[in-house]
Amino acid sequence: MGENKMKFCNILLAFVFFAFNLCYAQTEFPGWPRIIRLDHLRLSSVHPPALENVDSSPGLETTCGFHEDSVYVCRTDGSGLPGWPLVPTWRGIWACDMPCIGDVDGDGEKDILISMNENLIYHTSVFAYRKDGTLLNGWPCPIAPGGTYNPSLADLDKDGKLETVVVPLFIDTCIYVVDDNGRFLPGWPKVLPAAGPIRENLTGPAAIGDLDLDGYPDIVVASEFHLYAWSHDGTPLPGFPVDGPEGWYLGAGGTTHLVLSDLEQDGNLEILISADRPFEYPEGMLCVWRSNGEPMPGFPLILDVSPSCSPIPCDIDKDGLKEIILCTYYAGEGYPNIHVFRHDGTYQPGWPIYFQWKHHFRDPVVGDVNNDGWAEIILTDNAQINLMGRYYAYDRHGSLVPGYPKEIMGFAGSPTLGDVDLNDSLDLAMTTDLQFWDSTHYCAHLYNMETPYNPFLIHWGKQGHDNYNTNNTEFGLLFKPGDANHDGVVDIVDVVYLIEYIFRSGRPPYPPLSGDANSDTLVDIVDVVYIIKYVLMAGPPPVEN
Q1: How far apart (Å, rounded) are the C-alpha atoms in residues 400 and 377?
Q2: 112 in Cβ contact with 99 (< 8 Å)
Q3: What whole-number distance in Å separates Cα of residue 446 and Cα of residue 390?
Q4: What is the dihedral of CA 224, 228, 234, 236, to 10 degrees?
Q5: 369 neighbors 378 (Cβ within 8 angstroms)
Q6: Residue 340 near residue 398, CB atoms below 8 Å
Q7: Per-residue model confidence as pLDDT tens digits over 243-286
Q8: Percent of the residues in the chain that have a pLDDT greater than 90, as a whole number
Q9: What is the pTM of this model?
Q10: DSSP strands (E only) in 57-139
Q11: Residues 378/366, Cβ–Cβ less than 8 Å
Q12: Is 91 helix (H, G, I), strand (E, B) or coil?
């Protein structure tokens, strides 16, 4: 009887989605949405999907982890990859947040990592799967009780294989690093020292980046009251741990996480995190530290309302300096709740703005969704009016992009941007849960955004930034040779930019090699001449380095 009810509900829901998309002019890929399961517990768990070419065939697969169920890897037509979905052999499994994808064992094939915990005893393990759904040798790796945040990947020791960084949710206060064979890396785990009479919880996943510029990735995590940073071998970095602002909780109770970014595009990473106060206080805070643990001038900033997402850095106005996007909870029409700050802590012109719906608490993504050559801010809202949510797009001036918001059915997670079928058209993936009076339906969606795909203008394409979940804007940075100002176009503006840099001590190209048009590893007047010939005299294009 239960199985028949599930089939009937799925058929009915598929018809409802078809009619909904028809009415609201939403273009989903054929075979989508994927209606994953029916849950009578009505527990909300919508984790952002990852888009990655897992099986080496043309096109990207959509990988999703779902609460108390399984992990799905779907082709562009909605069909499952052989060996998937992966259904655990024991019940009571919670797929923890979102997967990360990379070549863990160095065999040239992509692997999928996800942490799960058995909710009967709160025992957590990290699983590493091949593309066919079989476990890598030595996995799973038992971690700790209490669940974890989503894991991160990095080649910490530069051996060509990826290590996995795992941060526990609660109960445990250790930072774990696991090698490609599912064993703890020498020097790990690290146990956080007690903070006075009470033990402080860790408040989000790790961020991975080279803070000390020694060529090796470092690991940064936040607890409620401190910021920690370790070298790849487990040695604390100079200047850390850093005390958080007194009376404030870093990570806003685990609803936000820290981020690394080169805000001033000078080659040094900054550390960003939002914070809140105990429940009787409504204020929020945005904190920024230098890579040595010193506070960034102009920060911290105190906000009227608690933050509802992580700070997202990106250069939305193409001035060579990153802005910081931060959302706060709804607190009435007198309180704006989407903020964009300059790197010095002042507001970007046109911001903040009032977000018209009330229940946004997912990280936004940033990319060009209307082919205007500028990146927009895309975020979801989940007011659940008539079982519907929305996703919005705002331009750099704080204006709603024409055609938005777009309606979605159900409670939506943070979206993921990419080009799934590799046709140079932008696609958007997300998961939703649709809550009825006695059940919840989990669904995966894949939309064709019907606008060109510009990877150079996707500044933050998914939660965690990338499929390694590094939370680092500089990881995997795409650039065009000759595009000195990193706006995605090689034109006369880049000539002016390079002249300012070479002769007037202007801002350096970002990243540095983007100014190297002739691929000689130097940025000099020869590159200026090369770009002028390309732009104005139909000369050869800049050379890939």
Answers
A1: 10
A2: yes
A3: 15
A4: -140
A5: yes
A6: yes
A7: 999 889 898 766 788 999 999 888 899 999 999 987 666 889 99
A8: 51
A9: 0.90
A10: 61-65, 71-74, 93-95, 100-102, 111-118, 123-129
A11: yes
A12: coil
